[in-house]
Specification:
There is one protein chain. Strand 1 and strand 2 form a beta hairpin. The strands form 2 sheets. The protein has a 5-stranded mixed β-sheet, with no helix packed on it. Strands 1-2-7 form a 3-stranded antiparallel β-sheet. 11% of the residues lie in helices and 38% in strands. It has one helix at residues 3-13, and strands spanning 15-16, 24-27, 34-39, 42-47, 55-61, 64-66, 70-72, 80-87. The protein has 1 helix and 8 strands, in the order αββββββββ. The protein is mainly beta.
Length: 103
């Protein structure tokens, strides 16, 4: 019915809608080096390292460094750029700030 297909697409682009009904995404390393999403407000370009680098070590959203592993929809709904720094070994990126929750 499309659910597994939608999950796979989200997993491959490195973004997943973590809380139903809340406009935001958890972030993980994308499966591709370059992805372009054509959104109603503008194109969102996602850049990552080579396929063998599975771990995110840094992140820039519209040119600004980010240390958290989630993003609000408002930050990207008009398009922009997400740039991942990646490596073959895990680092400490994304551990300093917890994502939002219903609690």
């Amino acid at each position: 019915m499309g659910t597994m297909g939608a999950w796979y697409v989200f997993a491959c682009i490195g973004m997943y809608p973590m809380i139903p009904g809340v406009g935001g995404f958890t972030l993980n390393t994308p499966a591709f080096e370059r992805i372009v999403l054509h959104l109603p407000g503008g194109d969102l370009t996602i850049k990552a390292g080579p396929e063998q680098n599975l771990y995110t070590t840094s992140l820039k959203v519209n040119g600004k460094h980010r240390g958290r592993a989630w993003i609000d929809l408002e930050e990207i709904e008009k398009g922009g750029t997400i740039e991942y720094g990646t490596a073959s070994k895990p680092g400490s990126w994304g551990k300093s700030e917890l994502p939002p929750s219903f609690e």
